[in-house]
Amino acid sequence: MEPGLVGPGPYRATRLWNEIIELFRTGMPLRKHRCRFKSYERCFKASEAVDCLHELLGSNQNFGPEVTRNQTVKLLKKFLKNHVIEDIKGRWGKEDFQDDGHLYRFPPSSPLKPYPKKPSFGKEVIKFPNWNDTKAGTSEEHIPVKSVTMNSEMWYKRHSIAIGEVPACKLVFRRELSQENIEEIWKSMTLSRLQKVLGLDSLDEVIDTKLVNSKHIVQNAYSVNKQGIVTLEDKSKDLPHWILSAMKCLANWPICSDAKQPTYSGFERDVFKTIVDYFGQMKEPLLTFNFFDIFVSVLGLLQKHSKAIEALQISCLLLPPENRRKLQLLVRMMARISFNKDLPPLSESVRTRTLMIQAFSRCILCSKDEMDLDELLATKLVSFLMDHYQEILNVPSSLKSSIEEHLVHVQRVQIKYAGADTDATFPTPSFCHQISTDEFEYQRASGSQEPLAALLEEIAMNKEISVKDKKKKLKQFQKSYPEVYKVRFPTPETEAMLFPEKSKQKPPILMWALKKPFQPFHRTRSFRM
Length: 529
Hints:
The chain is mostly helical. The chain contains 21 helices and six strands. The chain has helices at residues 12-27, 46-59, 69-81, 152-163, 179-198, 214-222, 241-251, 267-280, 292-298, 305-317, 321-339, 352-364, 374-387, 389-392, 397-410, 437-447, 449-461, 467-480, 482-488, 492-496, 511-514; strands spanning 31-35, 38-45, 86-87, 103-105, 169-172, 414-417.
């Protein structure tokens, strides 16, 4: 089986788990082994399983070369616990797998995980201001109009409105948007853009939109310093001063901000351990439990570089401001430490970049109910964050400008035509939600009737087409939509009213008809000379 990229969408972690199991069962070589004077068919050594699975994960697009051998051993322990593998005596259920010479085998059927049934999140109704309200102190009937000289073209336009050829219109004065209106528009358009980038029909299966705080989005977009780092109004939610000093020290090594700091051998390792301990004791990861599925879905876009960056930009906008600030400072420190050649090694056995990922991946991304692939998924995401943190942790400029343009538009004085309840230029964006089959059938039956009936009425009342063409179009419509046609024309008489019979006029009397009837030629005698 060729390993493929598992794209974004619901239950991505479960889909990855099932794919790895199938790849491992297909790719793991099985042969005869001897143990304590006894032979066992179709089995493998623990160390051979580690070699095979580590190679599979490293070459798989969903995980990549960042996966370590130690992480592979942890995954095999979970395989043993979930009865993906068993020892040669058929024992399983414990995580006592070791990278050694013990023999294991596959059970007759490896259990693939079923997709969990999540309750469908109801669509949140976002309240927008009533655009039909006039601005306070302004009357629609007393709008100052500059007098103009009436020419033939203007007279025709006014006359056309009077006879109904062009719909009448009026000026609509918009009220100023409240802060709540602005925040809800930001939320709606942000989620709509995220759904489009991920290529999903609905966000319901990957995020509960009711948990998205519109105030957080606006604060993350505007309350930033010159470096783009979020600033907090409540300083008690910020990182402690001593942690900030420690992070600055390693990020700017060897130029520390505090000249009084000690410089003994191993000082940098003690500072690093202090930072790791602080972030390791957090009760919830920086990307939060609520948004775990949305970030796992983004991992399916990593091959599409620009889309993955935009999706992560938008997803990080949804975070609480204190989480976004901590994430910005932490990932920036991790990236600087990884590329700092002047900083002494922080580990004797692990490369600095790998150490950063192993130390902080769990405090950045993990699920509330510990999942089997949490560590591998977090490793992949954190690695991408470190490589592109300057772009990802900035506010997406295209989204910001489009929302700001929309906010300006909806507050302008507009021309509203009769029968138009919404603005056609900038429709209010919304995100889809899943509905039941019965509701879909009802909406399809009821929702499609109105536009079809309007189309039929337009054909019937159109005076610009000939009678022959009109009859042809009506016949085509009747053949395609007989039910709609029958509602409009229940009897042949109602249809005939569209084509009133013209009174038959007698043909004009021709001049030659007034003359005497033709007289046949009578032969007469000819006179010979």
